[in-house]
Amino acid sequence: MNKIRVSAVSYTNTYPFLNGIRKSEVMDQIDLSVDYPSACAQKVIDDEADIGIIPTAALLSLPEYYINTDFCIGTEGAVDSVFIFSTKPIEEVDTLKLDKQSRTSNGLARVLLKNYWKKDVRLITDDAETADAYVLIGDRTFGKKNSVPFVYDLGQEWFNFTGLPFAFALWVSNKRLPDRFVRDFNAALAYGVAHAADVIVGLPKFEGFDYKKYLTQHLDFHLTDRKREAVRRYLDYLKDLQQ
């Protein structure tokens, strides 16, 4: 049997999944690659991977997709690794620089600016150009909150807006996968989530950042019905932006 190509994300928020996968027999069934989120999504879109932990926004780029597991990269409020950092209050922001490593968080920032904060801003993607505020995700945000005048946690702001949790990324395939593999893969993820704090040993330290709190309180890895509803709501807002 050909091995199933799996693309995962190279951020700390995915380490529990990777730990579970690497400690399970499912490793014998897969070819595993590790990428940043938007590249992970592109591999699934381009059929360079069969399944990946892909940003929720990328679902709109897949003509056919299957959500295969009971797990996601999610939060019930503040996620502590997806932010708008700003030099001024959000009500005064006129320009926003997007994060090139992100799809979902860039989209979420835009959804909130339009529908929650009622702001029309100019979006910037050129690194050479300055902006009032910028989106930043993942490990690059660790320890940074106290060095920026205004900080907006997008998980918390989405909850304030909708009353819903959020799922930033989902385990998605571009084709139907064998039932046995899906069961084995789901079990591997479940083990990793149940032992999330095991991955902390040896990670670099950042002032003011608590890995255990991040992995066991800020992140919520379970793909609940409410998170599925949040995905539907978010994609509707995102499609509205594209019209």
Please tell me about this protein's structure:
This protein is 33% helix and 23% strand. The protein is of the alpha/beta class. Helix 1 links the parallel strand 1 (4-9) and strand 2 (30-35). Helix 1 (15-22) packs across helix 5 (179-194) and helix 3 (104-115) crosses helix 4 (154-162). The longest helix is centred in the last third of the chain and has 18 residues, at 225-242. The chain is globular. It comes from Sphingobacterium thalpophilum. Catalyzes the dehydration of chorismate into 3-[(1-carboxyvinyl)oxy]benzoate, a step in the biosynthesis of menaquinone (MK, vitamin K2). It catalyses: chorismate = 3-[(1-carboxyvinyl)-oxy]benzoate + H2O. Pathway: Quinol/quinone metabolism; menaquinone biosynthesis.
